[in-house]
Design goal:
Length: about 425
């Protein structure tokens, strides 16, 4: 059975996040921003606050079981659950901390409820502001939540915790893969080499005049790769440049993939749009096939850790993608999942970043992309890395499914008693 109460009634503490300027320093107090609260966990680039910041921050340190909710902007209503690795982190002003009274409600149950349709309906209704959706503390306190039996809450807790463990295990597998590639190429040292001052000879200025292009670390990366007999991308894969002719049958239904449909974290196509061919945007260009790798050539995330690359599965075979993504068909001695992993490494991303042009929307030309160097280790190492990537993807999928299950079970329980 269940009885309804309001959130304000089960919270020990609720407070707005802190106004602070985090930066990219390696050490410090992790600072969680609204954009870190992803659908299935806390991720993306996490910035730090300097250890020396004021004592005030000490009142904003997170504990295990805290729930953060986004109060403003595009992700309003998104939530994140604080697990052991974020204990002692702090949180930004676009988020609100919810710290529950554990005797009354489980944080995992609150997290699953706020992600369920019954939680989302309320946060969406409350946040409808004039110019920008916005939640405040009184609104959040007014959210109605059913108090269910402790056994049901324990069950939800177990689903959410298992999901988190699988996610952590998935990250460990990728770390193992990184270590193998690092041993082969020494990428950690390169990543840390950010020169503030350098010089370039006039004879090298034929193509570009921007200082960014001549940074010594780009040359260093190129040197290391050439020493390892790296190939150009066009030697490692077949770059698909043939336009699909789906427009010849205007009434045919197509499934269209844009850059935003690729999730850079899991390297998967997570959504698509179905439409008749005649309605397809002019950017709809390539037909994609199972086994292809797609990688972005334009957009603000190009060449960064959020660069979109993904593997095309049987499910997406025959879909049409934007010309902002280029389909790559790996050649015989290129292991597809190894290639996907390499496309997420600093070695690939730094080369892409170097070749970007365009102020408003950065892009790399197809010709420059084809020249990007790809390191292909011996087959056994490629296979070992590919296996770790496959295991990581599998664990992430299991983790997502468990979160979805927790949401569905909360919804069913509410429907049963309402």
């Amino acid at each position: 059975s269940s009885s309804a109460t309001t959130l304000g009634d089960v919270l020990k503490q609720i407070k707005y996040g802190i106004y602070a300027e985090p930066n990219y320093q390696a050490k410090g107090i992790p600072f969680l921003r609204a954009l870190n609260l992803k659908e299935y966990g806390i991720e993306d680039e996490i910035l730090n606050l300097a250890e020396s910041v004021s004592d005030e921050v000490k009142n904003y340190l997170l504990k295990e079981g805290d729930v953060l909710i986004v109060r403003s902007g595009a992700g309003v209503g998104d939530v994140g659950l604080i697990t052991t690795e974020f204990v002692g982190a702090t949180f930004g002003s676009y988020t609100i901390l919810l710290r529950v009274d554990n005797k009354r409600i489980s944080p995992e149950y609150l997290y699953a409820f706020l992600k369920s349709k019954f939680g989302r309906i309320q946060t969406e209704r409350l946040s409808r502001g004039a110019a920008q959706p916005n939640l405040n503390i009184p609104m959040i306190k007014s959210i109605k939540i059913p108090l269910t039996s402790s056994s049901f809450q324990s069950h939800i807790e177990s689903l959410v915790r298992t999901a988190h463990e699988k996610r952590k295990e998935a990250q460990r597998k990728l770390q193992e893969a990184e270590e193998i590639l690092e041993k082969e190429l020494g990428w950690r040292e390169l990543e840390l080499n950010h020169d503030k001052a350098f010089e370039a000879s006039f004879s090298h200025l034929e193509r570009r005049f921007d200082p960014e292009y001549f940074k010594p670390r780009y040359e260093k990366i190129k040197e290391v790769l050439l020493l390892k007999d790296a190939k150009s991308l066009s030697e490692a894969v077949k770059v698909i440049t043939k336009r699909a002719d789906f427009r010849k049958t205007p009434d045919k239904t197509i499934k269209y993939v844009a850059i935003a449909d690729v999730d850079p974290e899991s390297s998967q196509i997570v959504s698509y749009t179905e439409m008749p061919a005649y309605q397809a945007p002019s950017r709809a260009t390539y037909e994609i096939r199972e086994g292809y790798i797609l990688t972005a050539t334009s957009g603000n995330s190009t060449g960064t850790k959020r660069h979109a690359s993904c593997f095309v599965t049987a499910k997406e075979d025959g879909f049409i993608c934007t010309n902002g993504l280029v389909p790559l068909q790996p050649k015989e001695d290129t292991e597809p999942l190894y290639l996907l992993f390499y496309l997420k490494s600093p070695f690939f991303l730094e080369q892409v970043k170097r070749e970007l042009t365009g102020a408003a929307i950065p892009a790399i030309s197809l010709e420059d992309l084809k020249q990007v160097l790809v390191y292909l280790p011996e087959s056994a190492i490629q296979k070992e890395i590919a296996k770790l990537v496959e295991m990581s993807n599998h664990l992430r999928t299991e983790s997502r499914n468990l979160i979805e299950q927790a949401k569905k079970e909360v919804e069913k329980m509410i429907e049963r008693y309402s």
